[in-house]
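Researcher: Please predict.
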Amino acid sequence: MGSSVWRWLRWLAPLVVLALIALIFRGQLSFLGEAWDALLDASPGPVAAAIACSLLSIVCMAAVMQLLINVERPVASLAQTTAITLASNSWSTSIPGGPAVSAWLTFRVQRSWGATAGVCGWFFVVSGALSTVWLVVIGVSAVFFLGASLSVSALAGSLVVAVATTLALYWATRHPTVLKRWVSFVPERVRGRLISVIDEVSRIRMSASRFGLTAVFSLLNRLFDLAVLYFAVWAVAGTAPTTTAGLNETTLSGVTLAFVMTKLAGAAQVTPGGVGTVEAIAAAALVAGGMTLIDATAATLIYRAISFALVTAIGWVVYLAAYAGRGHMLGRPAQ
């Protein structure tokens, strides 16, 4: 009970602090009203493109799941993986401890499809590792090819962990005997289950072409998400960001840097969905890239309204329609 209360307090405290800051400095926050006016004047074409890219990003994420979860045999269609991707995302971004609840829901749904526990674990590890690798690649590319100012060493640790985790999983699929020897010291009541999972993982074999296609969809997931911010900036600025910027405009490298920074901030999950922290970092990064605070705030609001609020709302509709009350969170999932 105490840990649950502490978790809620930890998540709500930053929001309370932000509210107090807004109250104390309300006289100096007139830029928010001006940002709202800029938001209302945003070009509808880029906004529509941002919405399309956000939905395509979700579909690409679902395609990654479909390719990985069907590695042994077909168990899910793209429609099914898209539905659980949306539903689990809504849990992840809405409540304290959301990522854990999201992972549990995804696991339960995948098991109801007929996927083994080993394959489910394979999906979580490989999809997470690929997503991390591509975020690092995008950040490093922005530094070397677009001239962005970003510490490469800050991303190196994430890259090393992601690659090492993937290699460890690959090693595990090829050395089940060694793993079984290691778990022989585990209490007997859980040893049998662990050996079963080891056997399931050892049967996983993925062709190079299938893995390559999975990596491509994972990259597209990141690029479409980046495009959402790109079009949000375009909608406010009135011109598409390029490698050079005019007065009070940002460049493609500025948008990319802001995107990477928001993803790093969002991964910390200080608040549900990174509310407050992500917006502040995104706006600050866009200002550092050359935009005015008013335009940067408006672009950030568009980006978050689409990639966070809209996608989360759609996810809850999908969850209520497809999974609520059907035993996916507790009990035996309905077939």
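Model: Confidence is low (pLDDT under 50) at residues 21-33.
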